[in-house]
Design brief:
It is built from 14 helices and 18 strands. By secondary structure, the chain is α/β, with parallel strands linked by helices. α13 packs antiparallel against α14. Keywords: Isomerase, Magnesium, Metal-binding, Phosphoprotein. It holds the Pfam family PGM_PMM_III.
Length: 445
């Protein structure tokens, strides 16, 4: 069965436009509540934790979800603004039935979304999402008054999560002597990130920590790391940590202001894990830089590529029984520390690697030279299938023969716009540009 509402990261869209409207979200809460009620026991009423980021629409959608769950007879705990991975952790730690996050991650404030976590802190299985979609097709009802759900606020949510994050950092290490700039993108970690690193001993300067409901991801955070790079240099800090709006994505900056992406940070984490035990393999995506694949091969570490999206990286890790994976965008998964991608926890894994090795980020990555990548977005007509375009297929094959083992070509359709994304990776930047342009020019719209 195909999904009507759920995408790879829950239900997402423009606020005020279907499906991100208060009436639909209330129905979504009711439908999800019905599914949870059917799956639960008669002795214990299901309880759901709801967290959100700092978008102004979060108030409205939180109220709608709460009403829907209550109408289905499900109790609700409200965590307020909390990182997505915090909701996953708290759902598991508090032995709750499910967790719900109201967030559109790195998107601008006009967007919002709803995503669910299971009792184990994982994204919902496909079967459960399909059951919720089926329930959405039925009229909304309401249980009798004596069976309505109740709501209460979880006042110590931030403190609990801060302690969890700190627990993923080695007991024998601390961050004393480090000056760190944290950038929370005016998002869900605005009141959490700086406390984690400060309580581990670092001197912390916080930026991107003044949310007003409209400024999430606006000029700050992992999608706009220039602000962090500037702040690190201005404050003469040792390192900078940039999160996105829901704090599941991470980029880092060294003292010189140089930005390190998810591929480089994954490399640092894997190398550190190898020093303390065997690493069977790591998972990247179709967009992961080829240099990382080559480096892992030289280190004797298995490597697999998943479709773009942390959901698919997680699936590939679980299939293989591996623990480490990620995307260049900064979604990093350390399954020995958390069930989902977590920007703060990932930053702590990088910092522990730096502390253990006594090296800087530049020194830890000096043996990894990323291949230049050129990405061209080509506008196409709706329904365009590049694999049926003979000229494009032929040029792609020709470029691949030219590159041999020294590069890659990736062509994929955008999931949200009428675009074809042409990516060429080569050891030489000029070659990458020229080859990508050649392939892109074969499209006649």
């Amino acid at each position: 069965m195909s999904r009507k509402y759920f995408g790879t990261d829950g239900v997402r869209g423009l606020v005020g436009t279907a499906p991100i409207t208060p009436d639909f979200v209330m129905r979504l809460g009711y439908a999800a509540g019905q599914v949870l009620m059917r799956a639960g026991s008669e002795l214990a009423k299901p309880t759901v934790l709801i967290g959100k980021d700092t978008r102004i629409s979060g108030y409205m959608l939180e109220a709608a979800l709460e009403a829907g769950f209550a109408a289905a007879g499900v109790d609700v705990m409200l965590a307020g603004p909390m990182p997505t991975p915090a909701v996953a952790y708290l759902t598991r730690a508090l032995r709750l039935t499910a967790g719900v996050v109201i967030s559109a991650s790195h998107n601008p404030y006009q967007d919002n979304g709803i995503k669910f976590f299971s009792a184990q802190g994982n994204k919902l299985p496909d079967a459960v999402e399909l059951a919720i979609e089926a329930a959405l097709e039925q009229p909304m009802g309401c249980v009798s008054s004596d069976k309505l759900g109740k709501a209460k606020r979880l006042d110590d949510a931030a403190g609990r999560y801060i302690e969890f994050c700190k627990s993923t950092f080695p007991n024998e290490l601390d961050l004393r002597g480090l000056k760190i700039v944290t950038d929370s993108a005016h998002g869900a970690a605005y009141h959490i990130a700086s406390h984690v690193f400060h309580e581990l001993g670092a001197e912390v300067i916080a930026i991107g920590n003044q949310p007003n409901g409209l400024n999430i991801n606006d000029g700050f955070g992992a999608t706009s790391p220039a602000a962090l790079s500037k702040a690190v240099q201005e404050h003469k800090a040792d390192i900078g940590i940039a999160l996105d709006g829901d704090a599941d994505r991470l980029l880092m900056v060294d003292a010189s202001g140089r930005i390190y992406n998810g591929d480089e940070l994954l490399y640092v984490i894997v190398k550190d894990r190898m020093a303390t035990g065997p690493v069977l393999g790591a998972v990247g995506t179709l967009m992961t830089n080829m240099a990382l694949e080559v480096a892992f091969g030289e280190m004797g570490i298995g490597f697999a590529r998943a479709k773009v999206g942390d959901r698919y990286v997680l699936e590939a890790l679980n299939e293989r029984g591996w623990q480490l994976g990620g995307e260049g965008s900064g979604h990093l998964l350390c399954l020995d520390k958390h069930t989902t991608g977590d920007g703060i926890v990932s930053a702590l894994q990088v910092l522990s690697a730096l502390k253990r090795s006594g090296k800087s980020l530049a020194q830890c990555t000096e043996q990894l030279t990323l291949y230049p990548q050129t990405l061209i977005n080509v506008k196409v007509a709706a329904g365009f299938d590049w694999q049926k375009n003979a000229a494009m297929v032929a040029e792609k094959e020709y470029v691949e023969r030219e590159l041999g083992d020294s590069g890659r070509v990736l062509i994929r359709a955008s999931g949200t716009e009428p675009l074809i994304r042409v990516m060429v990776e080569a050891k030489n930047a000029h070659d990458a540009v020229q080859m990508a342009q050649r392939i892109a020019k074969t499209v006649q719209v």
